[in-house]
Amino acid sequence: MYFNNSANFDNATFNDYACFNAAIFNDYACFNAAIFNDSADFYNVTFSASEFNGAIFNREANFEHTTFNDDYADFIAATFNDSAKFDNVIFNRGTKFNSAIFNDVAYFKHTIFYRDADFQYTIFNDHANFIAAIFNDSAQFNGAIFNREANFEHTTFNDSTGFKDVIFNHHAYFQNGNFNKDAKFRVPDSSENIITDGKTCAFFMKEYNDEAQYIDVDNIYYNYRKYKQDRKELSISKGTDILSWITCGYGVRLSNTIGCIISILVFFSYFYYFGSAEGHEYPVL
Predict the structure, then answer these.
(1) Which class for 183: exposed (0-12), middle (13-18), buried (19 or more C-beta within 10 A)?
(2) Which of 39, 151, 174, 213 could form a disulfide bond with 59, CB atoms 3.0-4.6 angstroms apart?
(3) Does residue 284 fall inside a structural domain?
(4) Is 66 helix (H, G, I), strand (E, B) or coil?
(5) Where are the alpha helices (DSSP H) in the chain?
(6) Distance between CA 154 and CA 31 in Å, rounded?
(7) Cα(131)–Cα(244) distance, rounded to whole angstroms?
(8) Are residues 258 and 188 in the same domain?
(9) Which of 114-118, 162-166, 275-279 has the lowest mean pLDDT?
(10) Which among 182, 188, 138, 134 has a CA at the least distance from the CA of 160?
């Protein structure tokens, strides 16, 4: 299927299955404010220029293996009410998903963003999967909200990356992530749900430390140790980790130490009190 001239589907309503598989749009393709009431299939499509601003996808939206060659592939304020599949997509120029809403799983696995990727103020109400995605230019998630798991494992960030004012309401995984050391990185304001491995743990701790956000530094280390501990097989190493967790929160949770001391005092006070009540005598130390 070839579109050699502009294809305008502004405000169109697709009540049945919309299939554009392997289509080639050699000119401008416009789907602004279009409504897809059934599945929208754009698998392996080539776009020269495209806009889906304000589009509503009420069923599955499949853009897997699609190539966007336009200056900006725009999905500004688009709504995805079913799964949105952008796995293995190539964005050769910039792309904008700012203020988009994903109400189901958002897949961007192995996707390549060669130019700016704008996800600012985007809302992810289900899992967001960016495993092994590559951001070769600016990646901006400032103000985004992740209400379920966000997975950035094995993801590469080669240029400036912004997570300022991001809200992670569930775990955000950054294990085996690659961050260009020369690129500016704006850390999330909150770190309670960020999970890292050894390499990315050190990276996040340094970035938070440079911003004098020392509580976040402790959170990153604590989450790293706890996540690693939970996945260890039963062993002496796991036992010592559990002891460290209970007694001092791996050295960064004073509340754990205070709680442990109080528990010990209450425990021995209980036995001392009831032991004395039964007429037992205890040696004086």
Answers:
(1) middle
(2) 39
(3) no
(4) coil
(5) 198-210, 214-230, 236-248, 254-277
(6) 33
(7) 32
(8) no
(9) 275-279
(10) 138
Is residue 88 within 8 Å of 63, Cβ to Cβ?
no
Same domain, 83 and 36: yes
Same domain for 249 and 221?
no
Residue 284 pLDDT greater than 60, yes or no: no
Q: What is the largest CA-CA distance in the chain?
A: 98
Residues 99/104/109/115 CA torsion (nearest 10 deg): -10
Q: pTM of the predicted model, to two decimals? A: 0.87
Q: Print the domain residue range for 256.
A: 234-279
Regarding whether 114 and 31 lie in a shared domain, the answer is: yes
pLDDT tens-digit readout, 136-156: 999 999 999 999 999 999 999
Which one has a higher pLDDT value, 184 or 42? 42
The encoded tokens of residue 45 equal 């499509």
Nearest to 177 by CA among 194, 161, 200, 160: 200
What is the C-alpha separation between 65 and 264, in angstroms, rounded? Answer: 59
Give 215-245 pLDDT, tens digit per residue.
999 999 999 999 999 988 889 988 998 998 8
pLDDT(211) > 70: yes
Mean pLDDT of 252-277: 74
Question: CA 228, CA 276: separation in Å to the nearest integer?
Answer: 44
Helix 214-230 with 236-248: angle, nearest 10 deg: 150
